[in-house]
Amino acid sequence: MGLGLRWYHFVLWAGFIAIMALMPEFVSKGTLRTIIFANFLAIFAISWDVLSGRTGYISFGHPFLIGIGAYTTAILTKRFDVPVEYAIPTAVIMTMVGGTIMFLPALRIKGSYFALVSLAFMELIYQLVQVIRPDLTGGTRGMSGLVTLTRGAVNGYYLSVTLMIIVALCMWLLMRTRLGTALSAIGMNEESVKGSGLSPTKLKLFAFMTSAFVAGLGGAFYVHYLGSIAPRALFDINFVFTIIVATLIGGASTIVGPMFGAFFLTFLLEYLRPYLPGAERYLIYGIIALLLYMYQPKGLYHIVMTQLDRFKKRADDD
Amino acid sequence: MLEIIIQGILLSGLYALIAVGFTLIFSVGRVLNLAYGSYIMVAGYIYFYFSQLLGLPPIAGLLLAGILGSCMGLLKYNLIVKPLKGDHIAVEISTLILAVVLQSTVILFFGNSAKILLPIIPGVIHIGNATVTFNVLAATVASWLILIGLYLFIKKTHIGRAMMAVSMDAKGASISGVDIDKINMITWGISGFLGAIAGVFFASYTQLSPTMWVAPLIIAIAIVIVGGIGSIIGTLVVAHIIGFMEIISVALISPQLRGVFTMLLIILVLVIRPKGLFGREEL
Predict the structure, then answer these.
(1) Residue A296's CB: how many other CB atoms inside 10 A?
(2) Does the ipTM exceed 0.90?
């Protein structure tokens, strides 16, 4: 298939899936709940990575996409009594429409300017959600008492981990195809992509749609896990910050990196909780993120890989 | 009607003051300093600490906030922007992280709850049926003075012209003997100072809270994008467009729609005319 898969890829993925499947046997319910959040953060980070890590179109407004997915399914199930199995696919489609809207500015602008437009998108939807039809969206206070898909930590864990692994595996495979390479090429030099006879517009549209698909899926399941939705928590610059930092710490444009970045950061925040209960935790979190990012912008994935290479080389020399 | 005009002029003056430091960095250094909003927040808290908790006179608090803001700018340039060597995306992301770090630092010291800042200059004046506080009036006057001063500084002085040269073509300026590093340092220093002064006025206009940096940052971004790179006049004009748009939408449509038109304006301008209304050809 030209995916360049080796035996150890299968072993690593199988090992990872096995560990995640056995996790509830070993850890407490509290830890499971933390892992659930890490799983959702991983999905959002992967979604960000597909778009921004690959194509270089930095999105500061990813909650725009996640929010469309979350709000669509919340409104459909709560206000119109639509069953979840129809509401979630509709939410994903709506998010992809949202992704297309976000794609339009990317036709003309890039770099810093695109990043700012995406931020403007997020602020726009944040304010619109509160004003337009508050009877549907719940206005400033949001909605609560939504349908939840699972009961208990273990079931919630299995649902989120399954979703996360499917998303991660699909995106990982997708990014190993020629399509994934072409998306990376857009991040490096859009002109030469055009020069090699590919259409950057189509490729970008594909990246936006894929990212929106994942974001919508994650957002919809997340809202049905939480059972509530609030605009201030969702369209928040701290949320953007968490997604971006998870991706970058893990290693952008690797899919596996953001996944581990999300776990690393969620657990870092959890372990800081006994010492710093409130928002001060973000101080330590931010400083670690900043130092790591300044030291190695390619993230932990890259650091691990270079160490492995060095190790291999040393083994070969002996 | 009179009230809308007066409120519009006052708010626009404040917005111009907020945006001008951001414009400066964006024009000269070509980087988006997403931690610009945190100058505004941190300066508000510095002023609060010195003048309200320690009881120094307001003008001393204002100056101290400005000087510390300027130091923050220099530190930021030397520790973050310079090591990243002009990688714009990396600067944006690291300044965003820095903004969140500063936000949590402020929470650590001052707590999460909002604080009311006493007016810098107390008192009100009635013009027609509009009530104008001296505080906001002072912000507007300060804003105009600072903008005129900055305009003259950039047009008339040697350093100002060098800044303009760097903003147009860094390489060309460097060949002509301009020390780009020094110019960048000066720009970050001035920008920090202006951001801090704007912050004190903005904090006394709204209130102090650790998350107050997002709104002014977005306003600054909007003004710079719509106004265009390297144009102080553009900043001034667009600050008035956005200020009036907000006041009119609050007065005539709905207070909740305050920011919506600003966001729509950013998206529209970036899509239709990416170089901004007054900017040079760019991108």
Answers:
(1) 16
(2) no
B280 inside domain = no
Count of the separate structural domains present in chain B: 1
Considering the domain boundaries, does residue A99 fall inside one? Answer: yes
Q: Mark yes or no for CB contact A283/B210 under 8 Å.
A: no
Domain membership of residue A221 (yes or no) is: yes
Residue of A nearest to B265 (CA): A120
* Chain B interface mutation, best of A127, A191, A236, A253, highest count of B Cβ atoms under 10 Å: A127
State the residue range of the domain holding B83.
2-272
Structural domains in chain A (count) = 1
State pLDDT tens for residues A217-238: 999 999 999 888 888 888 888 8
Q: What is the pTM of this model?
A: 0.87
Domain region containing A142? 7-236
CATH of the domain at B229: 1.10.3470
Q: Could you give the CA distance from residue A243 to residue A258 in angstroms, rounded to a whole number?
A: 9
User: Which of B32, B42, B101, B246 is best to mutate for the A interface (most A CBs within 10 A)?
Assistant: B101
Q: Cα distance from A302 to chain B (closest Cα, Å)?
A: 16
The string of pLDDT tens digits covering residues A265-317 is 888 888 887 777 776 777 888 888 888 888 877 888 888 888 888 888 887 77
- How far, in Å, CA of A10 to CA of B211, rounded? 46
Kindly state the tokens that stand for B52.
């309200």
